[in-house]
Predict the 3D structure of the following.
Amino acid sequence: MDVTMDGTKQQRRGNTRQRIQDVALELFAEQGYEKTSLREIAERLEVTKAALYYHFKTKEEIIVSIFQDLTKPIEELIEWGEQQPHTLETKHEIVRRYSQILADASPLFRFMQENQATVRELRIGESFKDRMRGLRDIFIDPDARLTDQVRCVSAIFTLHAGMFLLQDLEGDPEEKRAAVLEVAVDLVTQAHRGTLPS
């Protein structure tokens, strides 16, 4: 009985934390990180500042927690990739999984894109670079030609660019994501085979 009550209380606390993160990210996107105050976040949530402080003391704590939660799948993907053989199938799977991670965390990545100066100042900037290096390392064959290493890295950036550059184009979001994924997979396939485009 106690376990269930604790679990329910924990879940409720988790939901409040999630709501704070969502509302904060919404406000950061609308008016920028610097111009958003904790008071505004509390008002949008319709809670007191004290209730907000229970979960987060600063805006930086909020954005760092969002970053950690939404990029945890990248860490898990890197851990998974480190255990896999360097086959073409593994690389395709890494690209597919990373594409889904980006789709699931698109509000965070949009924030990072639109607030690059803030991201550099906060500790999330360096953490994200570390994750990107880890992703690169499970992806690239160290003995591959430089051109093919660049193709692999370009596949990652193709997924990033597609998320931002295609959002203004007409069309179904899933079709656009599938097209970007296809291009990224093609780059990885070329890199793996060490072929030049025809």
